[in-house]
Amino acid sequence: MDKITQKEQSDLFADWLEGKITDTALKNKVSEKDFLTNQKIKKSFEIINELNAPLGETLIAIKNNSTEKIKTNTNKKGVFNLYTKWAMSIAASLILLIGIYNNYSKSNNTIISSNFGEQKTIALLDGSEVILNAKSTLKYNKSDWKNKRELYLDGEAYFKVTKGNTFIVNTKNGSITVLGTQFNVNTKNNYFNVICYEGKVKVTETNGSHILTPNMAISTINGIQKEFTINQTKPEWTNGESTFNNVPLKFVIDELENQFNFTFDRSNIDQNTNFTGSFNNKKSKIALALVFKPMGINYKKVNSKIILSK
Amino acid sequence: MSEKSYNICDSKVFDTIFNTHAKNLKRFLYFKYNDMETAKDVMQESFIKLWNNCGKVEYIKAKAYLYKIANNAFLDIKRHQNVVYKHQKSFVNYNTPENPEFLMIEEEFLSKIERTIAELPEKDRQVFLLSRMEKKKYREIAQLLDISIKTVEKRMHNALIVIRKEIGNI
Fold this sequence. Notes:
By secondary structure, chain A is of the alpha+beta class. Helix content of chain A is 35%, strand content 34%. The two termini of chain A are 30 Å apart. Chain B has two domains: 3-88, Rna Polymerase Sigma Factor, Chain: A, CATH 1.10.1740; 105-168, Orthogonal Bundle (Arc Repressor Mutant, subunit A), CATH 1.10.10. Chain B contains seven helices and no strands. Chain B has helices at residues 11-33, 36-52, 62-88, 107-119, 122-133, 138-145, 149-168. In chain B, helix 1 packs antiparallel against helix 2 and helix 4 (107-119) packs across helix 7.
């Protein structure tokens, strides 16, 4: 990167503040440190603005002594979040309890599925752990578990398997065999991705089988197979982040739908361009911007649908 | 000692207290939480408590009362967050450093920017404030001040050069 003068630096900064150039464009032109400073200054302007905002309305609200009203208005976010989180954890444990109950009573097939934007942690009988990502289903037979550690997965999950018998994960796209290890499986229509974090994993697909060692990953997208290496020790999504490495946009949009319960109109865009990047599963606005802005795609919310256009 | 005779329940007296302390309290809370929404909420809550208890609080103690309530609310929220955090430790991680939302602005940094803005030449500052704080378009500012858009742009850039230079030195 060439050194640029104060003047150019400020011109870029001004254009960026005005929204004439995007974050990425600015990032490419200035050093990382300068970009951070710019961001900080921009944020500071916003804060100064907020701190100096007139408070007339607040005063009226307080004076009207509509304590309740203000409480519900301002606290809604926090309280709501807390309760949903509680409700979610209660629901998860209830489902788990029901699952256990079912196993000891009649049905032997346990089905666990997660909803939009939800993550579930499941402890299996042998002490293995499964973390289920949003909109995924896991099926397994509990009574037979001691002889056969075998389960069926649709969606995405991260497995921490304790040592023991062979552990098999069956999916629509192929099966994964392991002894004791940690790995991530993502299987959706035409999309199959397995990442090994520890131990050895054997992936069997229609067109052959592969053995993965730690930090190796394999993906099959629309029939095209690729092997690559990764350097995380745990999938990003378990920290509430969805990460993609050269994945067609279609699957990224699918994931957005799963995480946030959106519906997209995709008729005007090319879904085959590859996307590399990640988004946070908590903030839908930022996620949309992170995915679509760099791809040069406009998004607009119309009714309950989000229309995408070039 | 006329101050003592002021009654907070008197609407005008309350207005004065609000106007003197609200912004400072909000600022104080902002740097405590590093979150504007919470700062606003707690500030509002504190004044509501003061208004509801106006008979019990002496005028000269109003400020201390407000800050005490705000601080208690802060501790409550932190304690609560701790519980939630422990409860969910296994799968939620809010801090994503690359996310601009989580940019931490220190009080010192903000004060420095404010000082720099205050020290800008009058004409540059006027344009800067209209543009950045009142979110006016260059065209509108030009009309308002009866100058050309080019001039607005030039003054704005001057202001930004000074700010960047000052801040860049940290």
